[in-house]
């Protein structure tokens, strides 16, 4: 259950450094974050009995550095298996990071003790993709939304809790009459509202929304996106909005980070990513989205990528996209491209472009201007 | 839809009901359409709208009980599938009409090699020998773009990725050169770049084989580029039915209009809220009197909650289920004209070719 992380908290007292609002600079700074999953193999037993002779490690998130500014929505987009959900979970330490830092108000969440972490989670909340699996079917809506309030001792009595729950239900557009109902009595969109109310209960500053609309019908998706935006305006929330849906990401995000096989490959504000993408992968991703307009669909030419996303168990060496990239050259198989600033506040990870030659189509065949650059600003 | 040309499939007033503890669910309640040879029909709707049950009814795969095809004709080359014996339906299903389902993992047998699953079909329907069927299986995998088909044909489904599995499903569906392909949410479980590959593949194969396609989806973007006609379903009813261009240009139903407007538009200014259809999809077992969309409809008046709306013809081949269909249609057409004038006055014509499809054009 998603609520497990809130249980058994002994104290609602916050460490002083975390309780202080710090609006200068980023709210969350992610530094070289890595999350590896060990799949075993490579041990003596495997070698003797014909198992996996090589150690198999999934590098789900492999060295991500990002800043999330207060009050913004950072969209995180990518295909399944690119590590976007793992990144979101690692920020809240629902998945333990292998290395790197997550700095929230000057403190590194990746190195807090469990007890300190529970306190910190009051400020960091999550909304999950599956509104069916993320709510305990045996708890009433009142208990689900009220649990974090009790866990963090934000309410004194049952009556106070219920009053607060009713208020939260109204905020997210649920009738408070339903407080005693169970999750199965609600539709997918309503359940997602319950999940949002639960996340809001502790008055967080930062919410990771992991595919919050993917499981919902089209007419309900718009309702949930509008609700999230309205709550952000009213409460000054900061979101990490994770989705594979580029149309949704473009709509809700201020800035967008594109992930591919564990790495951020492009980062810019939402409009720029959409209108002037630099990376071949981003271009393909955007062109793959069908447009609900037959006239555009009839004339536009798609960049259809060959092949599938390679397995994250043994990702390609060098640039991980080189196996599918129409612009790949020999060096791409060797050099891991850093995320570098190509245009002002527009970062991309590709050795075939540089600030002087940002358009990959215009770069001389076989040339890699990105390799010649030395004084580039890398992603902070 | 027009009656000239060769009508492959003609569905007339099809009704499929389910008996549940909650009472009778009218999953499909009166759908009619003609599908010409080589045409693609899109059926669009949200979950519970009846789009998948329509597809299952056409090929008589509705589980019975609880399902029951109450009325209707499904004429395939003029022959009513509903009136055929089960054995005769089996001869059509998989051979002349075939299907692709949403989830390739649950539609393929996990214990059977791909080769065996492909061979079964042609051995059964085309009387292939084992070796003929094996060669045909390899040929089909090559056709759908599986690299190194000869070695991969003996793999098990789990050895393939999601996109590759969906290609195998398509290879199976096309093995006997069907005249009609029904694709039920064929790309919903796939990533966008893989979705683009699969849609291109269906388009190409359709052109090569001249098959007709029924494409069932919730994604208006997918139908825009793939179909000739569209049926919009809501609560088991056909809400709007029109040629694709007409439907997107001049929707004549408030529900269709709402759906089109609730898709995020990249040209949209940040911070302005997205159009949203209020309320929730209806409980199909307990539909309100009158129009089932009335509780969520902007245009609804008192009559909508009282009287069931008429199915109004708005143009040739364009129908809408609404008390105010003509008014909504006229307004949509005015909006389209206004938008076109605005574009031609203020903005340079957009060359989609030049942008190479890489960026979405903002003003179109």
What does the largest sheet of chain A look like? 8 strands, mixed
Strand content of chain B: 15-25%
Amino- and carboxy-terminal Cα gap of chain A: 35 Å
Biggest interface between protein chains, with counts per chain? A-B, 54 and 55 residues
Query: Alpha-carbon distance between the termini of chain B?
Result: 28 Å
Q: Provide the helix percentage of chain B.
A: 25-40%
Q: What global shape of chain B is seen?
A: globular
Query: What class, by secondary structure content of chain A?
Result: alpha/beta
The major sheet of chain B is characterized as: 8 strands, mixed
Bulk shape of chain A: globular
Can you list the strand order of the major beta sheet of chain A? Answer: 6-7-8-3-9-10-12-11
Structural class assignment of chain B? alpha/beta
Specify Rg of chain B, calculated over alpha carbons. 22 Å
Instruction: Please report which band the strand proportion of chain A falls in: under 5%, 5-15%, 15-25%, 25-35%, 35-45% or over 45%.
Output: 15-25%
Order of helices and strands of chain A: HEHEEHEEHEHHHEHEHEEHHHEEH
Please work out how many helical segments of chain B DSSP would assign: 14
Order of helices and strands of chain B: EEEHEEHEHHHHHEHEHEEHHHEEHH
């Amino acid at each position: 259950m998603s609520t497990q992380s809130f249980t058994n908290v002994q104290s609602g007292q916050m460490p002083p450094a975390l309780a202080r609002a710090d609006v200068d600079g980023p709210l969350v700074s992610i530094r070289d974050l890595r999350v590896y999953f060990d799949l075993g193999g490579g041990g003596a037993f495997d070698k003797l009995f014909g198992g996996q002779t090589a150690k198999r490690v999934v590098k789900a998130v492999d060295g991500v550095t990002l800043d999330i500014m207060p009050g913004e929505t950072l969209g995180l987009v990518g295909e399944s298996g690119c590590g976007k959900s793992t990144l979101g979970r690692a920020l809240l330490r629902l998945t333990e990071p292998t290395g790197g830092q997550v700095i929230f108000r000057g403190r590194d969440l990746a190195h807090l003790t469990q007890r300190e972490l529970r306190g910190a989670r009051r400020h960091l909340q999550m909304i999950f993709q599956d509104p069916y699996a993320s709510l305990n079917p045996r708890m009433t809506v009142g208990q689900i939304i009220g649990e974090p309030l009790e866990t963090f001792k934000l309410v004194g009595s049952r009556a106070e809790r219920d009053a607060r729950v009713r208020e939260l239900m109204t905020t997210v557009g649920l009738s408070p009459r339903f407080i005693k109902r169970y999750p199965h009595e609600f539709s997918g969109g309503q359940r997602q509202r319950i999940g949002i109310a639960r996340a809001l209960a502790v008055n967080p500053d930062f919410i990771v929304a992991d595919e919050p609309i993917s499981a919902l019908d089209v007419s309900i998706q718009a309702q949930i996106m509008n609700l999230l935006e309205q709550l952000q305006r009213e409460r000054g929330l900061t979101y990490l909005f994770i989705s594979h849906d580029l149309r949704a990401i473009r709509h809700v995000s201020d800035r967008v980070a594109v992930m591919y096989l564990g790495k951020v490959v492009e980062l810019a504000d939402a409009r720029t990513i959409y209108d002037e993408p630099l990376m071949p992968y981003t271009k393909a991703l955007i062109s793959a989205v069908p447009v609900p307009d037959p006239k555009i669909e009839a004339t536009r030419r798609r960049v259809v990528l060959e092949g599938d996303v390679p397995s994250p168990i043994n990702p390609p060496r060098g640039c991980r996209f080189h196996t599918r990239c129409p612009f790949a050259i020999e060096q791409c198989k060797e050099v891991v491209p850093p995320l570098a600033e190509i245009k002002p506040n527009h970062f991309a990870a590709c050795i075939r472009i540089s600030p002087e030659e940002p358009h990959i189509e215009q770069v001389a065949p076989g040339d890699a201007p990105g390799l010649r650059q030395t004084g580039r600003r890398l992603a902070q | 839809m027009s009656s000239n040309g060769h009508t492959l499939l003609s569905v007339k007033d099809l009704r499929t009901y389910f008996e549940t503890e909650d009472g009778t669910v009218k999953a499909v309640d009166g759908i009619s359409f003609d599908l010409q040879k080589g045409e693609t029909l899109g059926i669009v709707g949200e979950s519970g709208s009846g789009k998948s049950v329509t597809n299952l009814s056409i090929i008589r795969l509705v589980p019975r009980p609880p399902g029951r095809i109450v009325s209707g004709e499904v004429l395939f080359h003029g022959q009513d599938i509903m009136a055929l014996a089960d054995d005769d339906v089996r001869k059509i299903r998989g051979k002349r009409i075939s299907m692709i389902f949403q989830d390739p993992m649950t539609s393929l047998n996990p214990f059977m090699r791909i080769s065996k699953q492909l061979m079964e079909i042609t051995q059964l329907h085309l009387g292939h020998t084992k070796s003929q069927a094996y060669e045909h299986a390899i040929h089909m995998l090559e056709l759908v773009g599986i690299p190194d088909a000869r070695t991969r044909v003996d793999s098990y489904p789990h050895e393939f990725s999601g996109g590759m599995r969906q290609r195998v499903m398509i290879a199976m569906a096309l093995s006997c050169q069907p005249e009609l392909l029904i694709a039920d949410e064929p790309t919903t479980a796939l990533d966008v770049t893989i979705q683009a590959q699969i849609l291109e593949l269906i388009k190409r194969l359709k052109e090569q084989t001249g098959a007709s396609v029924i494409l069932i989806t919730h994604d208006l973007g997918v139908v825009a580029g793939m179909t000739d006609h569209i049926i919009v379903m809501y609560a088991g009813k056909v809400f709007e039915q029109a040629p694709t261009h007409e439907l997107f240009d001049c929707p004549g139903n408030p529900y269709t209009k709402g759906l089109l407007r609730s898709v995020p538009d990249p040209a949209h200014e940040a911070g302005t809220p997205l159009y949203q259809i209020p309320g929730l999809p209806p409980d199909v077992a307990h539909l309100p009197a009158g129009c089932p969309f009335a509780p969520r409809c902007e245009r609804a008046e008192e009559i909508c909650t009282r009287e069931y709306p008429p199915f109004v013809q708005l143009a040739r081949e364009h129908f809408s289920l609404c008390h105010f269909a003509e008014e909504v249609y006229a307004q949509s057409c005015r909006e389209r004209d206004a938008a076109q004038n605005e574009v031609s006055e203020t903005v340079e014509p957009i060359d989609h070719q030049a942008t190479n499809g890489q960026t979405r054009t903002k003003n179109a």
